[in-house]
Amino acid sequence: MPVNDQVTDSVTQVNTKVLGDVPAMAGGNLLMSTSQALSTAALNVTSANQQAGLVMQAATVQGINSIMATGTAVIGRGAEAILQKG
User: Fold this and answer.
1) Distance between CA 10 and CA 6 in Å, rounded?
2) C-alpha–C-alpha distance, residues 57 and 64, integer Å
3) Which InterPro entries match (predicted)?
4) How far apart are alpha carbons 16 and 85 in whole angstroms?
């Protein structure tokens, strides 16, 4: 039983279109995954930068506290010596 030529042409055109779309879809998927990876990397860099800022600020505060406490300790030792000799 012969098949109508219009039917075979239609099926051939659909198959050709699907095959023709494959490279474009693959390229689109590659670009999407690459852009996702790059945006995640940028987010990680931003987050690490914020965390480093917090650590540096905390270290600065601790350093200043140490400097300020040193003066207090010296005054306390001097006052203790005066009171003991008093």
Assistant:
1) 6
2) 11
3) Killing_trait_RebB
4) 104
Q: In the block, which residue shows the tokens 């917090």?
A: 54
Mapped onto helix, strand or coil, the DSSP state of residue 2 is coil
What are the average pLDDT values for consecutive 10-residue runs of the chain, which has 86 residues? 75 79 90 96 96 94 84 80 80
Residues in CB range of 19: below 8 A, 6 or more apart: none
* Alpha-carbon radius of gyration of the chain: 37
Put simply, whether the predicted model's pTM sits higher than 0.70 gets the answer no
Q: How far apart (Å, rounded) are the C-alpha atoms in residues 74 and 37?
A: 55
Tell me how far apart the alpha carbons of residues 68 and 36 are, in angstroms, rounded to a whole number: 48
DSSP one-letter string for 10-44: HHHHHHHHHHHHHHHHHHHHHHHHHHHHHHHHHHH
